[in-house]
Amino acid sequence: MIDFTGKSAIITGGANGIGKATAELLAKLGAQVVIFDQEAPLEKSEIKNIVMDLSDLGACKESVASAQETLGKVDILVNIAGVSIPNLILDLDQNKYHRTLAVNLHAPVYLMHLVGAIMAKQSYGRIVNLTSVQGSTTEPMALAYGISKAALESATRTAAIEFAEFGILVNAVAPGFVSTRMSIYDGEDELESDWFKSIYLENKRLPIARAAQPIDIAKSIAWLVSDSNTYVTGQTLSVDGGMSARF
């Protein structure tokens, strides 16, 4: 079993969904964890939570300093927090566009800059950025979201190259359909829709024939940020139930 005893982690978006599952898994396996989120967790937890807005880069800097003070060091950074704001390109709303890039791209890059400096002094670190299958494929109304995820995968590769000499491994995990709040649009859960059940489940466009649960993604992240990973860096791991392998 992977053991995170003695390791310290910062996880963004840790109050819900994949972030929460990852924070809880790493803590269960022995890590000290601090989460960054604009919301406080609904359940009481011993995991420290810093409530902040990731679109505010000043708040990112202050939160990293606070987390380092709490943890003493930072061995692991997992950038999970994200937003998806549907918008057609012909109706492009600048506020929606810029907020998506601020949270999904600029914040993870800036956090890699800040936390990477801490890790470089330690000569050790593990970073994972959560992207999406939409980093390489897309759909209508997903312009800003797709741009943010594709660019974050590019940033992941660059960071992996630049951080390698410091013993820091940097990778991305790209989920497909996951049962989280992000699957709900206009009050409807797309995972319960007729089109999802017909196309992806009954007709096996999604080979495993079920959406992922947050823990499915968290387990892959956990391996990448563990000491079991000694040589994988600069990669994007698709954790999508085989969807991207299907024509």
Describe the structure.
With 247 residues, the chain is of the alpha/beta class. The chain is built from six helices and nine strands, in the order βαββαβαβαβββααβ. The strands form two sheets. Strands 3-2-1-4-5-6-9 form a seven-stranded parallel sheet, with helices on both faces. β1 (8-12), α1 (17-28) and β2 (32-37) form a beta-alpha-beta unit. α1 (17-28) packs across α6. It is globular and about 50 Å long.
Helices and strands in order:
Layout: E1 8-12, H1 17-28, E2 32-37, E3 48-51, H2 57-71, E4 76-79, H3 94-122, E5 125-130, H4 143-163, E6 168-175, E7 184-185, E8 188-189, H5 194-202, H6 214-224, E9 236-239
Parallel strand pairs: 1-2, 1-4, 2-3, 4-5, 5-6, 6-9
Antiparallel strand pairs: 7-8
Helix pairs in contact: 1-6, 2-3, 3-4
Q: Class by helix and strand content? A: alpha/beta
What's the pLDDT, averaged over the residues? Answer: 96
Report the portion of residues in β strands.
15-25%
Spatial extent as radius of gyration: 17 Å
State the strand order across the main sheet: 3-2-1-4-5-6-9
Report the helical percentage. 25-40%
Shape: globular
Query: What are the low-pLDDT stretches, counting only 5+ consecutive residues below 50?
Result: none
CATH 4th-level superfamily: NAD(P)-binding Rossmann-like Domain
Feature tags:
247 residues, Rossmann fold, alpha/beta, globular, 39% helix, seven-stranded parallel beta sheet
